[in-house]
Amino acid sequence: MSRFIEVPARMLPPETLNALLEAFVTRQGYDTTDTTGEGMHGWVAELKKQLERNELIIAHDLELEMTEVMTLAQWRSFGRDIADDEEEGDI
């Protein structure tokens, strides 16, 4: 069984999805004080569009019981890092 599963955004309650996306915005260092007045709400709306276009994924780690939003590049890199750790016996 795989340690990680992809979670479809539509399966999450709206509050949970918004919280995950807000954490992603903060972690990525997005400027939430933009001049459009949208701030965090604008970024969350944009990220929802990216999820719909499959540019982002929501991944759940069954072992650590953590859920994260990732870009596809982050996911691919993360997968390689995990595989390397497993080969070295770190996991």
Automatic annotation (TrEMBL):
It comes from the Bacteria. It holds the Pfam family UPF0270. SUPFAM superfamilies: YehU-like. Belongs to the UPF0270 family. This is YheU family protein.
